[in-house]
Design brief:
By secondary structure, the chain is α+β, with helices and mostly antiparallel strands. It is built from two helices and two strands.
């Protein structure tokens, strides 16, 4: 987000939503702004739901996952 990088280790059962909230706060975002962003698996277009456990997204042998914080898709109309 805004060319800033934050790092933290989470347990595999941590949800994507919890990671998004942590990242948003760490980056100094307001709660309303955090709600308008989603985590996207880095290098992909995959945007897992907020209730997905991050352990299901981790790939071996690194056993980690990297996200980009991106604006949520907005539907106008």
């Amino acid at each position: 987000f805004a060319n800033e990088t934050v790092h933290r280790k989470f347990r595999p059962a941590t949800t994507v939503g919890r990671v998004r909230n942590w990242a948003g706060r760490k980056l100094g975002m307001d709660p309303g702004d955090i709600a308008e962003h989603v985590l996207q698996v880095a290098g992909t277009t995959e945007q897992p739901d907020v209730d997905v456990h991050i352990g299901t997204l981790a790939r071996c042998p690194q056993c980690s996952v990297t996200f980009d914080l991106v604006p949520a898709h907005r539907i106008n109309g």
